[in-house]
Amino acid sequence: MTSTLRALAIGALAMSASAAAAQNVDMRFLDTGAGKGVKIWSDGYDGNVFAGQLIHEIDAGDSDLTGIYTTYCIDVHDFVTSRFKTYQVSNLADAPDAHTMGEDTAQALRDLYAYADGAQLAADASNTFAAAFQIAVWEIVEDYDASVGIASLDITSGSFKASKTNGRRLRGSFTNYLSDLFGSIGSGARNPGLIALTSDRYQDQIIQTTIPAPTTLAAFSLLGAGAMRRRRRA
């Protein structure tokens, strides 16, 4: 079963982050999905990295969390592991392990996920969109300041920066996607089923336990940023 189908299968359960809190699960990294190589500068790591979908397997025993998921990284300080390791299921505001983001930043991520509407999880997502979504997540976690709003988000300055692997600026579709994604912040979206998986030794991840219907995903993965901009203006 694909990660998207697994997420759909448990979507009806609508498990809340509060119910998931304090649960331990075993998780391992399986593979990368859509995405691209980029260069980042941060308080945790400087260098070339993969930005995009990460495929993880969760073993939570008889819990409905057991399955394979498409995740995004919220932790620039650690690395993934291909061996099963114990992770804490956490409320988003209490992650990542290196420095908790707090409720304002958690809400910014909820806005981001709600706006992307599941397109970031689609198996046919474009490599550029998946990479831009990951960069947006990192920038929000590392640099978002609610008192300033989206003006605090700039991938060329601040605690977190990103570029092409050769150090040149990200342009074109990258810039369009990021502009759309950052522009969604402040919508006050209801919780789209986001929880965090944290570890003090391995890379923390964010998963979405409820996602839109497949027809919605297909529309976004085919139309991309243009469709997002048109929906915002509607």
Overall pLDDT: 86
The tally of strands reads: 7
Proportion of residues in helical segments: 25-40%
**Poorly predicted segments:** 1-21, 215-225, 227-234
Distance N terminus to C terminus? Answer: 35 Å
Count of runs of 4 or more consecutive helical residues:
7
Please state how the strands of the largest beta sheet are arranged side by side. 1-2-3-7-6-4
Query: How many separate domains make up the residues?
Result: 1
Order of helices and strands: HHEEEEHHEHEEHH
Q: Strand fraction band?
A: 15-25%
* Shape, per Cα inertia axes: globular
Structural Rg:
16 Å
Structural account:
With 234 residues, this protein is an alpha+beta fold. It has one domain. The chain is 32% helix and 24% strand. The chain has 7 helices and 7 strands, in the order ααββββααβαββαα. It has a 6-stranded antiparallel beta barrel with strand order 1-2-3-7-6-4. Strand 1 and strand 2 form a beta hairpin. Helix 3 runs antiparallel to helix 4 and helix 4 packs across helix 5. The protein is globular, with a radius of gyration of 16 Å. The termini are far apart.
